[in-house]
Amino acid sequence: MHAIVAELNVYPLKSARAIPLLRVRLGATGFEWDRHWMVVREDGTFLTQRTHPLLARISTELTAEGLILTAEGLAPLLLPLTAQGAGRPVRIWKDDCEGLDQGDEAGAWVSAVIGEPVRIVRTPATPGRMANPQYAGPHHSPLAFPDGYPILICNRASLDDLNGRLPEALPMERFRPNLVLEGLPPFAEDRIASLRIGPILLTLVKPCTRCIIPSTDQRTGIRGFDPLPVLRTFRYDRKLLGIAFGENAVITSGIGEVIHRGAECRVTCDS
Q1: How many domains does the chain contain in total?
Q2: Which end of the chain has fewer CB atoms at under 10 Å, N or C?
Q3: Bridge-partner residues for 13, per DSSP?
Q4: What confidence tens digit (pLDDT) does each residue in 222-237 have?
Q5: Cβ distance 186 to 213 under 8 Å?
Q6: How does 201-237 read in b/e, with b if 16+ C-beta sit within 10 Å?
Q7: Which conformational region is residue 75 in: left (phi greater than 0), alpha (psi within -120 to 50 degrees), or beta?
């Protein structure tokens, strides 16, 4: 079975807007620069659109000079690409790890966006966090600041199926995937074991259980229609005790290689 890479998205600042790309390089922690920066409270607890939907108002741009953050009413903020800053402990779910504080100016800037005192941290050059081996298995899967796995994969036909059940259609950006496939039947991703894209091999290891974020407009940060009640009627995973849409993946081979939008994928399914 084959599929096509329909979209490639990078989210340099966790829970800020995506950068859609025509090509992306695969790093050790996933797509290059994906979730390398994150907003945290003063105590180091991570923040996302689950509790702070206004993070969606932050646009991101990667340049040779650094990561540029923009938001309405504020001057752009430039953050260096180099892993620098004072170390501080941070927490993502149950994972305790280290972040590099990006300074008072960055903290004041993002605090103005969301309306409370927060900081921006960057992942160290050598992240110490790993994907859960219960699902990632023997694959060595270092992480920057995603929720739990290097790459999130969604299937366009699955969204089309969902939208056919909803009173209003939702765009794929609400589900914040890194890689979107087309050319597959709805929810075929449930049965995919791996994707081969040239020299790159991605292993799908765990369904992605969903929260309130798909109800959030990714331009305004305003909550809107929530698809979870409809998804629950046919996508509730009793093993994970959650509503599944999309698949988390780890990198089996191909670090340093490039994925192009429109590339053909060879799909291997579970037996």
Answers
A1: 1
A2: C
A3: 37
A4: 999 999 999 999 999 9
A5: no
A6: bbbbbbbbbbbebbbbbbeebeeeeebbebbeeebee
A7: beta
pLDDT digits (tens, 9 = 90+) for 194-207: 999 999 999 999 99
Dist. CA 71–CA 102, nearest whole Å: 18
CA distance 245 to 106: 34
- 3-class DSSP assignment, residue 71: coil
Residue closest to 69 by CA, chosen among 28, 29, 15:
15
Buried-state track 53-73, b at ≥16 Cβ within 10 A, e below 16: bbbbbbbbebeeeebebebee
CA distance 78 to 10: 18
Is 0.85 topped by the overall pTM? yes
How would you classify residue 73: left for phi > 0, otherwise alpha for psi between -120 and 50, otherwise beta? left
CA angle 182, 251, 159 (to 5 degrees): 25
Can you give the CATH number for the domain in which 17 is found?
Answer: 2.40.33.20
Give strand pairing partners of 89: 98
Residues 197 and 249: their CA atoms lie apart, in Å, by 13
Q: How far apart are CA 122 and CA 102, in angstroms?
A: 7
Q: How many CB atoms lie within 10 A of CB 257?
A: 13
CA distance 118 to 59: 18
Backbone φ, ψ for residue 119 (5° rounding): -130, 160
> What CA–CA distance (Å, rounded) separates 19 from 156?
18
Pairing label, strands 179-182, 151-155: parallel
Residue 231's domain comprises: 2-269
